[in-house]
């Protein structure tokens, strides 16, 4: 695990610029070095080959990268196919701390104490690189940021708070991963976590509770009791929650029809998908997609060399 950057958010992060990049086969990231801003990259499609300092990274769908100021980065290999990713630049308004692995884990494990939780909660915390299995909420927040940043909004703080919310969401997901890993290290939890990981890897297939139980030599009812005990939900609800996360992501980032999405994710049919979506999310897939129509149309690449806005420049 790499050192963790902690950025104080008692004042919101200052938005600078953002975009959704789409590059053809053979594209390479040009050499860059940030001055006072940070860059957040969220991988969407295919692989970005990026050297940051002396480290080589392959940024794929679900990968999150945070690049600090004063660090040189450049593409070290061309993309093999059409590549796409979100990029976002922001500037902290308050202090930034760099924690070693041990220091951050100590803070995290101590956060059960109210005072320690309050202290840690004043920061967003991310490593240089980590991965998320599902991007539904980060994608939705990025779409909102793209929309608001390209709209004549009466206050610049609107997008600042959205950027801060995105970083809080990523921090929460990252911390959940760390705590889950701590929990997994306990031997009696390893079997259950193998089942959870197997479901995640096979989520694109036609999964049933009985099929999962048979795979791991469990009784189906016993498996559901395990899920309720450890995750607070039944096995089938967990499966549906993961599948609907993928549905939301596709509704935000593709023009696929509901029928195509239902077929790809092995729902019974599009009518069943629509019924399930309304039950879990509280709106139909079409209503959900319409909410982000403007953000989808605004997801174009913005010139990364635009000057720093006056209110973010040094006095």
Automatic annotation (TrEMBL):
InterPro entries: AraC-bd, Homeodomain-like_sf, HTH-like, HTH_AraC. It comes from the Bacteria. Residues 193-291 form the HTH araC/xylS-type domain. Keywords: DNA-binding, Transcription, Transcription regulation. PANTHER family: ARAC-FAMILY TRANSCRIPTIONAL REGULATOR (PTHR43280), HTH-TYPE TRANSCRIPTIONAL REGULATOR EXSA (PTHR43280:SF2). This is AraC-like DNA-binding protein. It comes from Paenibacillus hunanensis.
